[in-house]
Amino acid sequence: MIIEAMKEQYASTTEPSIEALNQLNQYTVLNQQALRETLIQQGDDGILYGMIVNERPNMLAKVGVYVSEKCLQKQRDIITAIETVIAMPAYQQRVLSYAPELAHYQPLALGVFFGYDFHLEGVEPKLIEINSNAGGALINALLVRSQRQVSTQLLTLDSSSATVEQTFVNMFLEEWQAERGTQLLQTIAIVDENPASQYMLPEFLLFKKLFEQHAIQTVICDPNELTYHDGALWHGLQRIDLVYNRLTDFALEATSQHSLLAAYLATSVVLTPHPRAHALYADKRNLVVLSDEAELIKLGVEAKTRALLLAGIAHTAQVKPSDADALWAKRKQLFFKPAKGYGSKATYRGDKLTKRVFSDILTANYVAQTLVQPSQLIVEIDHELVEFKLDLRHYVYKGHSQLISARLYQGQTTNFRTPGGGFAEVNVLAE
What we know:
Helices cover 36% and strands 23% of the residues. The protein has a single domain (32-285, 375-429), classed as Rossmann fold. Helix 5 (69-86) packs across helix 14 (303-312). The protein contains 16 helices and 19 strands. The protein is globular, with a radius of gyration of 22 Å.
């Protein structure tokens, strides 16, 4: 009865608000048949569909989410401000001072798929982190392409689903051309540790299909399968021109990466994203610099840009043992993250901390970030109302947001373990 009453309330509203749409998300329900048909059109014989829907049932959320164009524009402005600072020599010198030595090597390629993640605290977006090899872009492009045909006419598109895959291909070509000019890109290796066991394997397969549609031979492999000899990087008998790097060993320190590292330093392969990209963008300590007014003034950042950053980034501080008492006292307002972390691993909400874990954090390389509450929405699943949290991710290249996705989840951080959660289509409403 409660569900039906809420539906009737929202249905009677001529122009439902974004909050109303998200509080009981009844307008965009994942159409699995449309997803299957889209994959068939791309040549899938059912294997990819099965991997995504059956083997990974929490990869795609059951519903889409709604965001205003005004809110998205604020996020784009924050991204532009960050990119402006990252381009400054003074900033680069500052963050490279604590980066691995390898990050001082500067290739001409910039790095693909920077992920800018936002929480929406009320109506104001706050950046909570940046990732240098953000996954999910092509999965989300597939989601957008398959679902647009069933979306309500209430919506306006934030990006063209018809061209986003081509935009991604063009991005890789730009990375290649930055290093090799007019030379033809012939081979790409998508590299991750034991890729067959990775949750994002379906995306690797989608990228392989996409690249091969553009006459680029593609392999998916573990770094151990690569060898460096005769001035080139090889996968068996196939010479590799470009590596799409999905590794989370951002400094290429593991023994399994030695061949890739040697080829990278010898400029025998184009690597994207690369260690310098992670150091400039994704080290969590960078947010300490970007959210501290004194640091920004010292770097010479102009007042307008400083204002955008201070309002738009969750304040972040380096965890120091000398600050233990103060951090513990205000822990309920903080979120603790490892400086070189990824994928929400080893992150802790302060109100969930034990003394033992806190003592470990004090001796490790952590930052403490002001807790920004994520948006919440209510979804009807099996005739029950289920509350989800959500964050928004911009996939960015050269400062331009190529695609926007949402992730629905329960618990402390984003995950793909929540029934009904996962990547969600973002529907943009003009206010």
